[in-house]
Amino acid sequence: MSKIAVIGTGYVGLTTSIGLASLGHQVVGYDVDPAKVEVLQAGKLPIHEPGLGEILGDVLKSGNLKTTSVLSEAVTDADFIFTCVPTPQDEDGSADLSYVISASTAMKDFLKAGAVVVTKSTVPVGSAQIVEDAIGRSDVEVASNPEFLREGAAVYDFQNPDRIVVGARSNEVAQSVMDLYSKIDCPKVLTSQATAELIKYASNSFLAIKLSYVNDIAALCEAVGADSHEVLHGMGLDTRIGNRFLEPGPGWGGSCFPKDTKALESIANSFGIELPLITTAIASNEAAHKRVADRVMNSLGGSLVGKTIAVFGLTFKANTDDTRESPSIAVIERLIGRGGKVVAFDPMVSDYKLAGLTVAASPAEAASGADALVVLTEWAEFKSIDAKEILAAMSGNVVVDTRKVLDQSVWTEAGANFPTNPTTKAV
Ligand code: UDX
Fold first, then answer.
1. Cα-flanking dihedrals φ and ψ of residue 374, to 5°?
2. Is the whole-model pTM more than 0.85?
3. How far apart are the first and last CA of the chain?
4. pLDDT tens for residues 357-396?
5. 327 CB under 6 A from ligand 1?
6. From 1.10.3730.10, 1.10.10.60, 3.30.1230.20, 1.10.1040.10, which CATH number describes the 201-282 domain?
7. Is residue 254 lining ligand 1, measured as CB closer than 6 Å?
8. Distance from the CA of 2 to the center of ligand 1, in angstroms?
């Protein structure tokens, strides 16, 4: 079993430190904020991630996970140091490496000879060299082990990954990092640093392109009177396409896809390469947000001025409390920008600062007096909401369900009007 330090206690850092500790390693999780460290040490998770809290309790009890806000304590003894710090988007779309560089610089004098610094954060091609330069030690190795966890399913994904990718200058170093995952049975890819870095961006961007295509096809289905779910199901039966990641919605979001597509575009451009599919997928995603706002506006007589819209769902998808780059927020901003007032309910969000948006404590409170209801996140609990109660609380009956979570026949019977695209005709 190895001694591991994990730098950062965000979504990735927490899942990595708790996951590696559950595999039997001795892990020290570091965060600069002592308050965060205290919360963790008390066995509490600062994020909502199904199943992770239970494992946190187990690894704290077994002593496999310790936490600290003193960097030297975390890294001095560590054989492997995983950096899980944010790489936010710069103004030009490129990834901002300042946290990665400052973490590398801060730890360099504490590292023991032979230590391997492993980058988990999503970083552009060539970043391994930047980390090596920031550390500036010939007796320390640098590797890249990109993260593929989905929020809301991070525990499952850690334990059952489709693959693990490790890139390093030598096969020996890459293998030493891969050995940390010896208890996990899955395809394992040992490669160079640049290849590992690019696999992450290329995968996320491909998935974003896939979803933009799905949303565009769903819009076409509605226009021609075809059933989008049946069309996508029929497509997904072709094993070359696959039946996963084919759900239409109000657009894709979250902490990865929007940032990673723009970063890949920026990396490609810096090498003089154009990636028009990615550029178009990003534009298509914005069109998906706009389509939802258009549908609500057109169903309410062509204007949102003076209208109240109830929204169910603020997070970027179900089973997370994360609202970063949420398509729901993008749609709400458009509704408010067109003069509407929005009252939203989300099971995991009790507050969100946005002029024109109020967060309600229950679905019925959000619906009270609303002209229209828009479902933007696929929370399972929305399925069992009482249609009659909600429609009775609303002043209108327009319902736009972008995730198809409501039982349309039950809601229609209760008096809901699910508008089809008013600007197009069925054939
Ligand atoms: C993603 C990648 O899946 C993961 O491998 C990577 O490491 C991080 O980014 P995550 O952002 O947690 O994970 O969410 P994901 O489940 O991929 O969903 C991203 C967005 O696509 C969400 O807004 C979601 O609602 C949307 N989506 C996903 C759809 O609209 N339809 C689908 O069929 C799947």
1. -125, 125
2. yes
3. 64
4. 999 999 999 999 999 999 999 999 999 999 999 999 999 9
5. yes
6. 1.10.1040.10
7. yes
8. 32
